[in-house]
Design goal:
Elements: E1 2-8, E2 16-24, E3 30-34, E4 52-59, E5 62-63, E6 66-70, E7 73-77, E8 84-91, E9 101-102, E10 106-109, E11 117-118, E12 126-131, E13 137-140, E14 143-146, E15 149-152, H1 155-159, E16 163-166, E17 169-175, E18 178-185, H2 192-209, E19 217-225, E20 233-236, E21 240-246, H3 253-268, H4 295-312, H5 318-334, H6 343-348, H7 361-364, H8 368-387, H9 393-404, H10 413-424, H11 429-436, H12 444-449, E22 453-458, E23 471-472, E24 475-478, E25 481-488, H13 493-497, E26 504-508, E27 511-512, E28 518-522, E29 525-531, E30 541-548, E31 551-558, E32 560-561, E33 566-571, H14 577-588
Parallel strand pairs: 1-12, 18-19, 19-21
Antiparallel strand pairs: 1-2, 2-8, 3-7, 3-11, 4-5, 4-8, 6-7, 9-10, 10-16, 12-15, 13-16, 14-15, 17-18, 20-21, 22-33, 23-32, 24-25, 24-29, 26-27, 26-30, 28-29, 30-31
């Protein structure tokens, strides 16, 4: 059997992609067509079949009968036809890294949200013909076989190569003789020459680690968006990545670091996830959840390597890296969920927790991105200590590539423990029991001490002055509505008072509740706020006035000393040379 896909963009303003799938040399009485429910790399059920309309099937003899089997599958009765044509339209107007969009300015195709697959024939090669509007051009990691014609090795390859179609700008550079395309969709305050230079440095640095690049051509697709209305983020693919980034992230270095970090993270996924992967993540079942307990490694360790390697590429400095890690540790200490959810549980429950957060997530869940990166810091230090600085997580990834890249088999937790032992000669099973499969907190004072570093905790200065006493209430709010409670931290004064998500706080002690009582929960994230009660004292009893279900209420609570809001990693004055040497190996390899 042969598969040929056609994508026609007739009316961009309608937001409908028109898809035709032709099956020739067919010898089946029944064929099953399925629309995926999710996109690999984003662990959330999207049910893309809900956007499909005008499903019709025909042979040269006329229309064929079909029936809907479940929410995303159609059964077609071929009547012994050797050629079958399926046509359907897909509504697409959501610009995120796990969906697709078509409008008057461009078309972005994330494969699983546009292309159906033919069950039992996913391994067949697929020819793809695209008919774009006049003046639009195509950028994709798919193999080109002619004008607007491409070839995918199989369905997995088709949907793992996002497609950008429009009047976007493309920038190019080469590393190790391989072409890299930077696709810029939209415009902001970007510096094109600096983009090329810095992205190239990231590619070069990772190519040294793995002694080469596992592709012939790579495409970076950047959508420069308004982050107030369109979500930022990135998604890894086999020889490309799609990244939504705020169009004004290229000005101040503090903002630009976010661009460097997400680029480095998604590029490292080339190896961690796309070439070495958890055993459960492939071959994919596109119809339902694919559960794994290993996302803390797949994503969290990718965060670790991504942030470390922009330092090694000399795009950031040691102080920037210390600031990044210390802030991760602060959030780890602040959120009660870190004591209620292990890294393994966080990974397994991503489908119902990370992508579908409840107001209580802060108390019973913690992101596997955060946990994984901090576990990576601790593991790297332990490997360095055990080997006298001769081995690190770099060696673990090289081991995993040698072990699992050849046969395509995914790794398990047992494989990771074995790999860590091979690299370090240390039994990591107890560490996994306590900190990966268990909820025991990692002692970062001890971890950092091994590098001649320490954590300094304090409150943010007020008008240039140090403060040693500060109360807190324990509420989180979103910047979209700075009076409505989004979450309440467990065992906080607000929790004891009975405040709940959805309550609209209007006054504290009779004073209007406004911006003066709030601050950003994280410097790098202005969308989540927390209380900032500088004008009160710990142990002070306060009145909180709020609306709940349209009724005015007042409760009292006693304030507590606030958790420290500033963590800083600093060098120990009396650090031994051995610790300083390990620190250098940790940071620069």
């Amino acid at each position: 059997m042969k598969l040929h896909y056609f994508l026609d963009i007739k009316k961009p303003n309608s937001h409908y992609f028109d898809v035709r799938i032709e099956l020739s040399d067919l010898h089946q009485d029944e064929i099953m067509f399925t629309m995926p429910a999710w996109v690999p790399g984003s662990y959330s059920i999207e049910d893309f079949a809900r956007y499909v309309r005008n499903f019709t099937v025909e042979s040269p003899k006329g229309a064929l009968k079909f029936t809907k089997v479940d929410k995303s599958t159609w059964k077609v009765f071929t009547q012994s036809a050797s050629l079958v044509r399926l046509t359907y339209s897909v509504f697409a107007d959501n610009l995120s890294v796990h969906t697709s969009q078509l409008n008057s300015t461009h078309a972005y195709i994330n494969g699983t949200s546009v292309f159906m697959y033919v069950e039992t024939f996913k391994e067949l090669p697929i020819e793809v013909d695209i008919s774009p509007p006049q003046g639009w051009r195509i950028s994709t990691g798919l193999k080109s076989i002619g004008a607007n014609k491409f070839l995918a090795e199989n369905y997995d390859n088709l949907v793992d190569c996002p497609i950008e179609i429009g009047t976007h700008k493309s920038l190019y550079f080469s590393v190790l003789g391989k072409e890299h395309e930077i696709v810029l969709c939209g415009h902001g305050n970007e510096d094109e020459n600096k983009l090329i230079e810095d992205v190239k440095k990231i590619v070069e640095e990772f190519s040294k680690l793995f002694h080469g690049l596992p592709y012939e051509r790579y495409v970076f697709i950047y959508h420069l968006v308004d982050s107030e209305t369109t979500s930022e983020g990135g998604l890894e693919h086999v020889n490309s990545t799609s990244i939504n980034i705020d169009r004004f992230k290229f000005g101040t270095f503090e903002k630009y670091k976010a661009f460097l970090s997400v680029t480095s993270h998604e590029f490292f996924h080339l190896w961690n996830v796309k070439r070495i992967r958890p055993a459960e993540l492939g071959p994919f079942n596109y119809k339902q959840e694919n559960y794994t307990t290993m996302l803390w490694f797949a994503e969290g360790f990718t965060d670790f390597m991504g942030n470390l390697y922009i330092l090694r590429a000399k795009l950031t400095e040691e102080k920037d890296y210390y600031k990044h890690i210390s802030e991760k540790i602060r959030i780890y200490d602040l959120l009660p969920g870190s004591l209620a959810c292990s890294a393994s549980q966080s990974s397994f429950n991503s489908w119902i927790k990370l992508y579908k957060p409840s107001p209580n997530n802060v108390n019973d869940y913690i992101s596997y991105y955060l946990l994984g990166e901090l576990i990576a810091v601790a593991m790297n230090v332990k490997i360095l200590e055990a080997t006298g600085g001769k081995k690190s997580l770099d060696d673990l990834f090289q081991y995993l590539m040698d072990k699992f890249m050849k046969d395509g088999r995914g790794y398990t937790e047992k494989d990771l423990i074995k790999g860590l032992h091979e690299v370090s000669e240390v039994n990591f099973s107890p560490f996994f029991m306590r900190h990966v499969d268990g909820e025991e907190k990692i002692d970062f004072d001890e971890i950092l001490k091994a590098l001649g570093l320490k954590l300094r905790k304090s409150y943010i200065k007020t008008n240039g002055h140090e403060i040693s006493v500060k109360p807190y209430l324990g509420i989180l709010l979103k910047s979209t509505n700075l009076k409505v409670v989004d979450s309440v931290l467990q065992d906080s004064p607000a929790y004891s008072a009975g405040l709940s998500a959805g309550d609209e706080v209007v006054a504290i002690n009779g004073f209007k509740f406004d911006d003066k009582f709030l601050k950003n929960l994280q410097e790098s994230n202005s969308k989540i706020k927390t209380d900032n009660l500088l004008d009160f004292r710990p142990e002070e009893r306060i009145r909180i006035t709020f609306f709940r279900n349209g009724l005015l209420n007042t409760v009292e609570t006693v304030l507590k000393q606030s958790p420290f809001e500033l963590y800083e990693i600093v060098e120990m004055e009396d650090a031994p040379q051995s610790a300083i040497a390990l620190r250098s190996k940790f940071l620069f390899g």
